[in-house]
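[scheduler] slot 2 assigned
[scheduler] job type: sequence-to-structure, two independent chains
[scheduler] chain ordering preserved from manifest
[runner] begin chain α
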Amino acid sequence: MTDTTKQRALVLFAHGARAASWAAPFERLRALIDAQTGVQQPGTEVALAFLELMEPRLPEVVSSLVARGVRDVTVVPVFLGQGGHLLRDLPQLADALRAAHPDLRLHVAGAVGEDPNVLAAMRDYCLSVLGPAPG
């Protein structure tokens, strides 16, 4: 995206996989959020980055955003829980990004799967798949 009016960014951070099709739900989520930011959060770019096995990686995405003038980035791990990647790898990546871009305000949110609203939506989906009780 070359829109220089974007002042901040929301980066969805996913694990990555060998199968290219695995990224499709994350790309749809990015598009859904991007459609809303124009209405609710103007001036916000929405990007997708991966930890491994897929491109683009988080350092490249953030560097590209900074090069276009974005100085406020929020990273949202699209993970169900705080496993080793979020406890070890993401903090190291965030520290390196802060060192490489000292003027950057970088916020790292918690894993999306630990949010009560996300858990409630997952509960509702699981119960809807189960269907009504027999009898």
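[runner] end chain α
[runner] begin chain β
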Amino acid sequence: MKFHTRKWVKPEDLNPNRTLFGGRLLQWIDEEVALYAIIQLEIPRTVTKYMSEIDFVSSAKEGDIIEIGIEVIAFGNSSITLRSEVRNKLTQKTIIEIDKIIMVSLDEEGKPMKHGKTKVEYVSDSLK
């Protein structure tokens, strides 16, 4: 799994227990997987269709640096299936795991659209 993004946990990200608010973390994950899928599929209208069970393994506190990892599980005709793990950058302790996230590419009418991708491509490859 490649860890693409780092976030610094700030006071505005905390819940009443003074740990990272789960909703904030899910927002960060959803944004990162959307960006990843859009870049991979090269279709800007790519949206979240499904997230499997979410397992909060540990928490993060103010001042922690977390990193969001994403890996491709499969390519469908109009979708890409990903897995995500978030961990504490310094301790490497897992914070959350999501085993299956399905992102779907849409046409201008909001219908699933074939993307034609079958493997991971890197930015340097797609910008040629």
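[runner] end chain β
[qc] chain β: Helices lie at 22-41, 123-126.
[scheduler] slot 2 released
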